[in-house]
Design goal:
The complex is a heterodimer of chains A (about 170) and B (about 180). With about 170 residues, chain A is of the alpha/beta class. Chain A is about 40% helix and about 20% strand. In chain B, helix 1 packs across helix 5, helix 3 packs antiparallel against helix 5 (about 135-150) and helix 5 runs antiparallel to helix 6. The longest helix of chain B has about 40 residues, at about 35-70.
Chain lengths: ~170, ~180
């Protein structure tokens, strides 16, 4: 099995729950990631994205006052291509079909269901490394090519409909 | 919601990230998955004791938020924006990591119960003839309290099965209350 030295990756974690941030940071450190910054709000994260310029953004969806998908949209609108093209993983307790599509349409690369598994997180990061996706800009979308292979994987789809939808997205 | 369609991408402009994640990563170096998971397990063990305290504190907060939610049922806004929902949503996301799967299960049940009124506030739902039932909400909170006090990990075995079944039965019988009963 190929191994990966992730020590140079710069990762920004955004979650309004301190405990959750610490869990994700611990997972990443266990994978060998050394450059990790944690932020509590989407507003703080947006400033940090421009200052720190991470290689990967991992954000919770449900946050106040600005939620994770609004953060994704703002990142995708940034004029700096190294920011607007950031790989983004969204963490969520929601895995119902409309929400999976909603996240995909905001321009996220991956959706991971809570509770987060370290194995799945690692696999998704390796997938982002091994299968970088081109970005598409249409009249109403900017983000990773949703038709170019595996786009979104919900770790624990809660219904057969979500299973089918994930397969659908993968096949297109 | 947009359903994926190849037509939707006609005329799309394609671009590539200026920096690829792979450019930052050296292959053939770094830890293998087995040693990563061993480190994660040690990390979880180190945080587990702290989480037990966090669980108890969260359940107390959820109890208070539940009281506020049910006593102000006609006045609170969107159910999924309530403090109760946010606290339970957070807890269910963390609990599974520390082997409190029954907390995640019952937390998810309470979240999905509240999500039925996600678009309607309980007040407007009541006007339409149905609103969340405080008894059902309280039963979920009591179950979370019992798990926390009992330190019940995993799926809780027979006890967990009984708890989940009794909550399901309660929801089936008393899931909604009509406006006339308020």
């Amino acid at each position: 099995m190929i191994t990966y030295d992730l020590s140079n990756l710069r990762v920004l974690i955004v979650d309004d729950n301190d405990y959750m941030r610490r869990i994700i940071a611990m997972f990443l450190r266990s994978m060998g990631v050394r450059k990790i910054i944690e932020k509590e709000t989407a507003g703080q994260a947006l400033s940090e994205v421009r200052r720190f310029v991470p290689d990967l953004l991992i954000t919770d969806w449900m946050m106040r006052p600005v939620d994770g998908l609004d953060l994704v949209r703002q990142v995708r609108m940034d004029r700096d291509p190294s920011i607007s093209h950031l790989p983004i993983i969204v963490l969520t307790g929601f895995t119902d079909l409309p929400r999976v599509y909603q996240a995909r349409d905001a321009g996220v690369h991956e959706v991971l269901a809570k509770p987060i598994s370290a194995t799945i997180l690692y696999q998704r990061i390796i997938s982002l490394i091994e299968h970088p996706k081109p970005f598409l800009r249409t009249t109403d979308y900017f983000g990773p090519d949703r038709h170019g292979g595996q786009t979104i994987v919900a770790e624990k789809p809660t219904s057969p409909e979500v299973d089918e939808a994930v397969e659908d997205v993968i096949e297109i | 919601m947009t359903v994926p369609s190849k037509k939707a991408n006609q005329g799309a402009v394609r671009s590539h990230p200026p920096v690829r994640l792979g450019d930052r990563v050296k292959k053939g170096a770094g830890p293998d998955l087995r040693s990563i998971l061993a480190r994660v397990e040690r990390g979880i063990e180190a945080m587990r004791g702290e989480f037990d305290g966090e669980l108890k504190a969260s359940v107390v907060k959820i109890g208070k938020a539940g009281e506020a939610f049910t006593t102000q049922l006609g006045a609170v806004g969107n159910a999924t924006e309530s403090q109760l929902y946010l606290l339970v949503h957070d807890l269910r996301g963390q609990a599974g990591t520390f082997d409190y799967h029954l907390v995640s299960t019952i937390g998810s049940m309470l979240c999905s119960y509240l999500e039925q009124w996600g678009k309607d506030s309980p007040a407007s739902a009541a006007k339409k003839g149905a609103a969340p039932n405080p008894i059902v909400i309280q039963a979920h909170i009591d179950a979370l309290r019992a798990i926390s006090l009992g330190g019940i990990t995993g799926d809780g075995g027979d006890v967990g099965e009984d708890l989940v079944r009794s909550l399901e039965q309660l929801r089936a019988k008393k899931g909604k209350i009509s406006a006339s009963r308020d």
